[in-house]
Design goal:
Helix content is 40%, strand content 14%. With 675 residues, it is of the alpha+beta class. The chain has four domains: 200 residues, 2-Layer Sandwich (BirA Bifunctional Protein, domain 2); 70 residues, no CATH class; 258 residues, no CATH class; 44 residues, no CATH class. The strands form four sheets. A seven-stranded mixed β-sheet has the order 13-14-15-16-12-17-18, with helices on one face. The chain has a six-stranded antiparallel β-sheet with strand order 1-4-6-5-2-3, with helices on both faces. A hairpin with a 2-residue loop joins strand 13 and strand 14. Helix 12 runs antiparallel to helix 13.
Amino acid sequence: MMVIVEKPAKEKGGAGSRHARSLARYMEIAKRDGQAHEFGLDLAHYLLTDKSPGAPEERVIDLGGLTQGQNMDWAAARDEMERRLALRSSRSKKPARHVIASVHGDEILDGNSCSRIAMVLAEELDCTDALILWALHGDTDNLHPHLLVLTLDQEGRATPFGPGGLSHEAMQRACARLEYELGLRSEPGARYVADAHNVRRVEPIETKTDKAKHPSPSLKTLQWEEESGVESFTRFAQKQLAPLLHAARNWSDAQTALAEHGVMAIQTGSGGELRSADGLHHVKMSVVDRKLSMPKLIKKWGPWTAPEPPEHPFIPRIIDPERAGAWATRDQHRADACGIIQERIARLMAEKLAAVTMLEAERRICRAEVAALEADPAVIGVGALQSAVSSMFKSRIADVRAQYDARITALRQLRAEIDEFPDPAAIDLPSLEGNDASFDLGWAPSQPGRRELRGYRSVEVGNAIQYWSIEEGLGQPAFVERGNRIWLQNTSDATLRAALLVARDRHGDVAAFGGKDFIRQAQRLGAELGIPVQARPIAQPEPVRKRSRRAERWYAAIDAAAGRGQNVASHTADPSPEADRASTIDRDVAPSPVNASDGYRLHMRLRRRVRALVAQRLARWDWDPGEYRERDPSVARAGPHKYTDADRGSGPIKPGEPRTAMQQARGQSPPDWSR
């Protein structure tokens, strides 16, 4: 079975050339940029088939190009792409199209097959003058060629992409031809079938003679119907409901006719829409027919009045039960996977709030302790020290927020990949149930860097350092160090020991964030290694996994068309229990104190940090503490805020003599702030 889909691009205006180059670069190396890749959260790590990222030649099997029926190598195709982009006409708004072809895991493709796929696709899309670059990737459980269709001819003029703009129909024809030519299994419920002579459509294309009364659905709606096998509510309204509204004489007749189909006309602001009784299906009346817009009907029939809810439910028509059932199953798998990611995001957001709250409490404690110090204006003012403490904690809080935001962004990128993945059933759902445990290095003075660990290899990816276990042979990094935090991908004893050793090299102690079982394990291993581990257990309510509401509205009709009751399409899976979802924290896991009594004292590492920060500010501002001494009112001054030689008590300033106390301090050896 072969599936060919176009992945929509979001570039606008002059970004088309940049999008084409970026897509070609990804096709060549099969590596994605972004924070999901930095954290090791690529979708390929969560597939049922064990696919560990290897060298580029293992991920990219073959490369090539095609134009005007002639095959090209990859280098020549890239050069030709750059030449055509330089000649690009301003009228070619979208020069690069990204198309992905996919086959079953047991079906084999090679370079010749990819060349044939590109040639058939160019013929069906009516763009033989365009340039097609293809790359065969094997980084998932099935082989899938990526095709970049550059819709520019040799002179830089725009070429068509599908006859009459119907690219989806052309791709369906190409699928039927390629399944026959390459000996692949046919897709169940396919719209086109091919033989040795021609390609024919199983269902005839509906033609409308009167477009004014029956407007055609949009291309997006047609593509959705082709994928799901379900008639859209827009098409139903244009075919069945529009004639009823045209034949009605007033609002009462219209609402009565609509109620027989489980639909009613509702006014929304200045417009209106046709809505089902359950509210799940709706379409704007102006989309159904411009003559049936709410302002025109009010002008024709008078003011709109709220109707009674219909007694009969709306039941959508199933075009192909087999295709609709397969689509519902795929949607259920996709919704479950996205729901797991959403749970992880919710836990991280709650953990971020708790971490920031603890830092705010520590900031208030430190400010109170500094305020209780005995003032020594000759060295530094208490107010300046309080400002230094606040600035230090604000910087720390901003860093913590950035750490969690980066992790959440990476998970959202993973969720977007899952949403676009054509075969969500191949995703291993238990492996997605990560707890996102982490070690916070807090006030670590040294910056992250690659460290040699026995049994691990370190790889620098963007702003992160990934540590891969050589002995365990996992399909993803064991842990990732990014900034002042170490994120654990798995919680085995070997992984935690290695992560604690990295933390010890950068700082003396760490704070463990995660579930109570993880914290117990981290404290036990930390005691063995002589590393103090502070407990930061987070108590949070159990999140609720949400499913796709758009797909759920069709499940009852799909199950009824297939002759079954409650099936996988209408089944709501309960989230699997986890130890980290407990609403309370065990007594044996005591969190580190954040609200201290009067006997609380500033931690030594905070003292060092405050001293270093104050020294940096003194050097940067060229601040003279003598300007804040208690002044003698009996001494005359040269100005309101200036000291004379009498204030100095040392006579006139001699040549080469330091003028301020800061300049005098610079002439001495620097103090040792590490004590």
